[in-house]
Amino acid sequence: MNFKNLEEAKDTIYEGHKKCHDAMEVGDVKTNNQIISKKVNPAFEYLKNNNGLRLLIEFLKHDDVGLRLATARSLLPYYEDISIDVLNDIIKKEIPKKSWKAEIILKEWKGESLKF
């Protein structure tokens, strides 16, 4: 996928996240995976390769917990401190499904054992 600029790539990630959310609401995993592989991942790579990941930091403060979670996971290698803060915040709020995912992401990042 070709992007004209950093802002277009950022917008593609945001719109892709919304479409993934809608797909998962109806259990459409195939559409979700296609959006991630064909739109979101290429947009992330474009931002990474063009020094634009900083534009995603605003998503770490977004009202949509799923967007915050996905962004924190993606930015962990690049913006570790703020990403960990966001994941810890999600964990503390005990949000169904999201807090558990944030805890797994954080434990994997720290190399801790996962206990189910």
Low-confidence stretches: none
Q: Class by helix and strand content?
A: mainly alpha
Q: Compute the separation of the termini in Å.
A: 39 Å
Q: How many structural domains can be distinguished in the coordinates?
A: 2
The percentage of residues in β strands lies in under 5%
Helicity range = 55-70%
Radius of gyration: 14 Å
Largest beta-sheet characterization = none
The dominant shape is globular
Indicate the mean pLDDT: 94
H and E order: HHHHH
Number of strands: 0
Enumerate how many helices there are, as a single number: 5
| Assembly form of the protein | single chain
Structural notes for this entry:
With 116 residues, the chain is mostly helical. It folds into 2 domains: 1-51; 60-116, no CATH class. 67% of the residues lie in helices and 0% in strands. The chain has 5 helices and no strands. It has helices at residues 6-25, 29-49, 65-75, 80-92, 98-110. It is globular. The protein starts with 5 loop residues before the first helix and ends in a 6-residue tail after the last helix.
Question: What does the secondary structure layout of this molecule look like, with pairings?
Answer:
Blueprint (H helix, E strand, L loop, with lengths): L5 H20 L3 H21 L15 H11 L4 H13 L5 H13 L6
Helix pairs in contact: 1-2, 3-4, 3-5, 4-5
Brief account:
The protein is an all-alpha fold and 116 residues long. It is built from five helices and no strands.
